[in-house]
Hints:
Elements: H1 7-13, H2 15-25, H3 29-35, H4 43-52, E1 58-62, H5 64-68, E2 93-99, E3 103-109, E4 113-123, E5 131-141, E6 146-147, H6 154-172, E7 176-180, E8 185-186, E9 194-195, E10 202-206, E11 212-214, E12 224-230, E13 235-241
Parallel strand pairs: 1-2, 1-10, 11-13
Antiparallel strand pairs: 2-3, 3-4, 4-5, 5-6, 7-10, 8-9, 12-13
Amino acid sequence: MVIRNHIAYRFLTDSNFWMEMMEDIFPNLHSDFEKTGNKEVPKEVMGLYHCLYDKDNKSYVVSNSVVENLDMLKINKKDDHYNWDVFKHLPAQKITFIFQDGSLLRMVISEDTIWFCHIKFKLDKGSDNHGRQHSVMFYIEKETMKLCDHFSHPDVIGLEEHIYKFLCFFYLTENTEEIIPPGRVHGTRKTGKTSNDFKFPITIVTSKWNITTIRTEAFGVRGHFRVQPYGSGSRYEIIFIAPFEKSGYTRRAKSLTA
Length: 258
C-alpha cells in the first residue's frame, strides 16, 4: 500500500481537507452559528473539530490479516447494538486507523466522550485519481455509554459491527505492532509492502495475537473468539472458543499469523 495514494495522506497532512469535511457534514454551519449569536457551538461540531484536529494523534496501518480474522469474533447485540461498555475505561487518546481498503477511522477519547469519524474513498472505475469520498461521524457519551442518535443511521448501522470487532481485537488482545520510520518501506512483495510517505512514524498492526482457549460446549461449533468480562466484570478480554471434538475437550489456541 502506498500511503501517499490513500485518503489518510490528505487527511493527516492537509488542513484544507478538514474544512471541506466540516462544510460537507455541516453545510448550514455558518448560518446556524450566526442564528445563535455566536454564543453556542453544537456538540457535534465541536466533536468533529476534535476528530479532525491532528495534535497528539498516533497513526496505525491495519494489515489485511487483522480484517480477515474479524469474522472469527462472535459477539451478541443488546437492544440492537453492541456492548460498548467494553471501552468505557480507555484513557484519553487520539488514534487514526488506516485500512487497506481505502478507508480510515479516527477515534478520539476525551474525558466525557468517545468520538468516531469514518472516511472512505473509492476510485471511480477506470480512474487512478478520481473517485468518491464518504464520511460519517458518531459518538458515545462516556459516563453513561449512551449512543448518539447517529447510531440509528443506516451508514453507522453498516459500520458498527466492523468497527466494534476491530476495536475489540486492538484493545483486548496482545496485538503485534511494528513502527515504520518516515520514508521507510515495510513488508515484502509476498506479504505486501507499505511505504511510509509521512514525515512522522506510523505503526503496522498485524493479527499475531496470543489467545487463551476454553472448553467448548456445543457440537459442530466453529472455532471463534468471544468478548468476556473478567474480575469484577468491569473489564473485558477476548477468549478463544475451540471447535467441539468430544465432551470435555480443551486445547491451547495457536497465535494467528500475520
